[in-house]
User: Which sequence fits this backbone?
């Protein structure tokens, strides 16, 4: 089967799916969901259209092998394309200097983004090099993971999904435009924060001092605290408490260990203090969790 659609125009793309391939459409506050007819396969996509760019998140499977074609040539309408799959691979027909859009679209779980190519003043060779390096960028992959972890079943989900794609796009444009040395310095900092988080995760049930974590990851305490909070959305001590409380709850529900044994295991010798923290976190006492 062939799927022929105007790839670089959001309205034409949407109308083509509706009129030529009988997709059902449903408008949300900020987007349109397009659902595949059952005789063609299963799945849907959610399309976001802005003044100068558009993007969509799609997950579908056609019953038969399907090849996508577009009457648009790569770079038409002054647009640059990005294709992103669930494994975090990012590619671009424009940056790779391809002439036409032709993809196997039988089984897709991905994101497509179209932005004005005038944003990028760098030559394609340098953009291609940066594109290849981005596959190894941890923060880029983490931002993509939040996108693929977000459902798009209703209006509230679509707002969250849009914000996460825009957050990634902002980071992505900054990466492609940034000075390589500046970006590498930022990446090195992000790697150290990830190292700090891994260290905290491994030792969360022990007594941890900031200076100990600082020495381990190679950052001063001020940079560590700020970077850790930016990365996890929690200060270090609150992140440790959250980790301990979630572990305690899992043990209460999945094991027969006593409250005292669990309290000792996660690092609280004072059971009263443990119970207070647990109640503050979950709205109930540990002893009430099994009732």
Assistant:
């Amino acid at each position: 089967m062939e799927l022929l659609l105007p790839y670089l125009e959001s309205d034409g793309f949407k109308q083509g799916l509706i009129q030529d391939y009988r997709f059902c459409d449903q408008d949300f506050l900020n987007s349109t969901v397009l659902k595949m007819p059952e005789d063609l396969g299963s799945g849907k996509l959610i399309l976001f259209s802005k003044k100068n760019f558009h993007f969509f998140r799609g997950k579908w499977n056609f019953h038969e092998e399907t090849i996508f074609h577009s009457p648009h040539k790569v770079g038409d309408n002054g647009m640059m394309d990005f294709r992103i799959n669930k494994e975090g691979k990012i590619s671009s027909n424009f940056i790779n200097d391809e002439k036409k859009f032709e993809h196997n679209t039988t089984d897709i779980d991905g994101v497509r983004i179209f932005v004005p190519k005038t944003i990028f003043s760098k030559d394609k060779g340098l953009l291609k090099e940066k594109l290849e390096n981005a596959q190894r960028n941890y923060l880029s992959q983490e931002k993509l993971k939040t996108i693929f972890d977000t459902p798009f079943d209703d209006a509230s989900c679509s707002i969250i999904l849009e914000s996460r794609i825009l957050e990634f796009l902002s980071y992505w444009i900054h990466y492609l435009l940034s000075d390589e040395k500046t970006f590498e310095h930022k990446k090195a900092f992000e790697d150290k924060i990830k190292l700090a988080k891994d260290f905290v995760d491994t030792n969360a049930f022990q007594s941890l001092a900031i200076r100990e974590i600082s020495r381990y990851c190679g950052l001063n305490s001020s940079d560590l605290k700020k970077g850790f909070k930016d990365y996890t959305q929690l200060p270090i001590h609150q992140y440790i408490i959250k980790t301990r409380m979630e572990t305690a709850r899992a043990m209460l529900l999945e094991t027969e260990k006593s409250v005292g044994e669990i309290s000792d295991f996660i690092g609280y010798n004072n059971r009263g203090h443990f119970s207070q923290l647990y109640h503050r976190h979950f709205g109930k006492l540990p002893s009430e969790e099994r009732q």
